[in-house]
Amino acid sequence: MIDETLELAAGDLDEARGKITATREALERALEAADSDEVRAAIARLERIEAELAAVERKVAGQAVKV
Q1: Other C-beta atoms within 10 Å of 60: how many?
Q2: What are the tens digits of pLDDT across the range 6-50?
Q3: Which of 67, 60, 62 has the alpha carbon at shortest distance from 12?
Q4: At 65, is the pLDDT very low, low, confident or very high (cuts 50, 70, 90)?
Q5: Integer CA distances (angstroms), 47 to 24, 37, 65, in order
Q6: Count of the separate structural domains present in the chain
Q7: Is 1 helix (H, G, I), strand (E, B) or coil?
Q8: Which stretches of the chain are assigned E, i.e. beta strand?
Q9: Which residues contact 6 (CB under 8 A, 6 or more apart)?
Q10: Is the pTM of this model over 0.85?
Q11: N or C: which end of the chain has fewer CB within 10 A?
Q12: Are 31 and 40 within 8 A, CB to CB?
């Protein structure tokens, strides 16, 4: 049961990481075209979210090891 929950969480994290990556790439393309401070700020926010996601992934991985 715990393993299934961790697998679901890992899948959700993978999906979130994919969305973050796609959004960052789109923003970087927009930045190249417009050189906007607003786009830079959005990219910075995405990087912070990605760091938080990585921390959650490490916690999930740690729980999987404990089980």
Answers
A1: 17
A2: 788 888 888 888 888 888 888 888 878 776 777 788 888 888 888
A3: 60
A4: low
A5: 8, 15, 27
A6: 1
A7: coil
A8: none
A9: 60, 63, 64, 67
A10: no
A11: N
A12: yes
